[in-house]
Design brief:
With about 130 residues, the protein is mainly α. It contains 5 helices and no strands. The termini are far apart.
């Protein structure tokens, strides 16, 4: 149990040292440097006025009507995704068909060779080979 007391005492010491250090006070932003209502520099691009923000969210609710351009863009994206999916499945189907055809050809060749070997082995000379 003595190691828990030692760990607790070390953590408490570090906490006190960090809270009394001068760097801890410089981390906060003083409120006298500028008002939050009128940002300067690059912050002006990030924030917008309250009225503009409420109008933006009022226009873009879930039930808000989409413009025809937005609908057309979504339809183009859907059609492009469908075309890519169709091409992917067509390519896979063609590859499988080629594979199956090659397997069939190989099997036919093996069957033909084994039949030919059987005929040569069992030929008695009385009937000419076909």
């Amino acid at each position: 149990m003595s190691w828990t007391y030692a760990t607790l005492l070390a953590l408490l010491t570090v906490l006190l040292a960090l809270s009394w250090s001068p760097e801890a006070e410089s981390a906060y932003v003083p409120s006298s440097t500028g008002s939050a209502k009128d940002p300067q520099g690059p912050l002006k691009k990030i924030f917008m006025k309250e009225a503009d923000a409420s109008n933006f969210f009022r226009r873009r609710t879930r039930r808000g009507a989409k413009s025809q351009d937005e609908i057309n863009a979504e339809q183009r994206q859907i059609l492009a995704a469908d075309e890519r999916r169709r091409e992917f499945h067509e390519q896979n189907r063609n590859e499988f068909e080629n594979y199956a055809e090659e397997e069939n050809d190989e099997q036919d060749e093996k069957t033909r060779e084994s039949t030919e070997q059987w005929r040569e082995y069992h030929y008695d000379g009385m009937h000419p080979p076909q």
